[in-house]
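Chapter summary example.
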Amino acid sequence: MNRNHIHPHTLILCFVAFVSILTSSCSTSKKLNYFNDLPDSEAYELKAMPVPERIIERGDRLDITFIVKDQESAAFFNKHSMDGVASAVGAATGVGGSVSNGSDFLVNPDGEVEIPVVGKVQLAGLTLNQAKQKITGIVSPYLKDPLVEMNFQSFKVTVLGEVRNPGTFVISTQHATLLEALAAAGDLPHTAKRYDVRLLRDYNGKRVVRKFDLRKGSFLEDPDIFQMRPNDVLYVQARSGSLFKEDFGLATSIVTILISAITLGFSIQNNKN
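The structure predicted for these 273 residues follows.
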């Protein structure tokens, strides 16, 4: 009798357990990882994606600065006086004039901002460059050679559903991407449906809902999804019973291979004895 002989059933059980745990792990990782379908290479070149020019909308807050040569006339347009800053900017720019303090202008529900002296100005639907040209033309009768600087104060997105930290986030940039929005929400837990993410957009007079799959790299080259718009809402679905099934299958595989290893150890020990 060969004492070193291992029962065939033990070998079969070990092989099945190994294949089971390997398959379960691969299946789970494919469901949890982003853009699985990209080539498995060190570098993959994506198509160039132009950043869309942002449109001014109702509720936006604009930082508007006036730089002019005539310090006294500029004071009427400034919400707050900053003579020290005005002098410094004048010296630095060579215009020897006045600058506002970067006043906060709210775009009201009618799409207007109210500027001292000239009153309400319709800006909703314009780009920053268009708005600057419009305001420059409006204040030109009051200010000599005005220079108008304008920026959005923030970028707001909302991420809801199965994310680690749902809520509304103000991103301190002029533009934001889908990945930045997900990062602001703490990314997705294992219980999230990466293949069923919804984008709700109400922007520039158009309302749309887009569904996409984070496991596919195609969203990286889709500007309507990858490039966020102000006030976008992301909603991530939760996986109900699928997580339990996957975790249970993985746990079962681990237990099976452990039992197989123990059985194999006992078999070898008995054969030696």
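To summarize the output: Confidence is low (pLDDT under 50) at residues 80-101.
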